[in-house]
Design brief:
Largest sheet: 5 strands, mixed
Shape: flat
Order of helices and strands: HEEEEEEEEEHEEEEEEEEEEEEHE
Radius of gyration: 39 Å
Distance between the termini: 114 Å
Strand content: 25-35%
Structural class: alpha+beta
Number of strands: 22
Helix content: 25-40%
């Protein structure tokens, strides 16, 4: 056999061996890549399962919350229906739904008047003493204790606290026997031992403006002159909102409650509002608000002693 034939056969075997080795290496590489892809798919599956579990838990929680809310509303409605049923033998009953912000008047169970109202917003205010005040409309049976025309509103302390916080201000109380600096809101300190009003003769006060109660009204004393502050308006002293005592004109607000008020006790009432654009929403501090025309009709159709059912 010629030598070149032997060399050619050896070369062919080498090429064939390399080809086989290449195929094997390529196959192994494919296996490695397939393994990596499978691991990535496993990771994706794990993530999908994790996300799905979270979403499922969230959906279950939302469903349970919705179920609880529906159950609460159904319980309120059932309780209200029972209360209304118990009052069928009375002449007239005002029924207020805090969930729907609807007020109706029934005569022996028959609907004779209906209107959109606003009820308590349900928020909580913590005053500087730590007392918690919840602005909810009271639930249950009440009565009209009195009826007023052209009522005057005397804001509670929480009104000033809430308004001051909205504006980023502090509050300061002006007592009947107090005097405060009208420019800073700080107390006027006595320079002598002559009692509360010794600041009057204190020459060190100079031209400082002093705020105090004089003749049952709030005045500012400056350089010997006395000026009464207007009634029914917020009083400012520097960066503080002043809370005047109950009984002074500055604590009395006219036309804030509309033309009529039906008093229900404990500071709660059915009255008018200047924020008529908010009727139908839960935005009040606990009272039931009505538009002027609706309030006038309700006022004329009810009497002291009529039942009021709120649910």
């Amino acid at each position: 056999m010629p030598r070149w034939v032997g060399l050619l056969g050896s070369w062919a075997l080498l090429v064939l061996g390399l080809s086989i080795a290449g195929v094997a290496i390529a196959g192994e590489w494919i296996n490695i890549e397939d393994g990596r892809r499978l691991r990535r798919l496993d990771m994706v599956d794990d993530l999908v399962r994790e996300r799905s579990s979270e979403q499922l838990a969230h959906l279950r929680q939302s469903q349970q919350q919705s179920h609880n809310e529906v159950g609460s509303l159904q319980a309120k409605l059932s309780d209200a229906e029972k209360k209304v049923g118990d009052l069928q033998d009375t002449d007239r009953t005002i029924v207020v739904s805090t969930a729907e912000n609807k007020l109706s008047l029934r005569d022996h169970g028959k609907l004779i008047f209906e209107a959109t109202c606003s009820t308590g917003k349900g928020t909580t205010l913590v005053d500087p003493t730590g007392r918690r005040i919840v602005f909810d409309t009271p639930i249950g049976k009440l009565k009209i204790l009195s009826k007023e025309e052209n009522p005057v509103w005397v804001p509670p302390d929480w009104y000033y606290i809430e308004e001051a916080r909205k504006k980023g201000l502090r509050t300061v109380h002006l007592g009947w026997n107090d005097a405060i600096d009208a420019d800073t809101g700080g107390p006027v300190q006595s320079a002598r031992g002559g009692g509360v009003w010794s600041w009057v003769g204190d020459q060190s006060a100079g031209s400082r403006r002093i705020m105090k109660i004089q003749g049952k009204t709030v005045v500012i004393v400056e350089n010997g002159s006395v000026r009464e502050l207007p009634p029914g308006q917020i009083i400012m002293a520097g960066g503080a909102m002043v809370i005047p005592p109950v009984g002074v004109p500055q604590r009395k607000y006219d036309k804030e409650l509309g033309s009529y008020r039906l008093n229900l006790g404990d500071g709660y009432a059915i009255h008018g509002t200047q924020a008529t654009n908010l009727l139908g929403q839960s935005v009040s501090h606990g009272c039931v608000r009505l538009a002027d025309d609706d309030l006038a009709r309700l006022f004329s159709m009810t009497e002291v002693g009529d039942e009021v059912v709120i649910y």
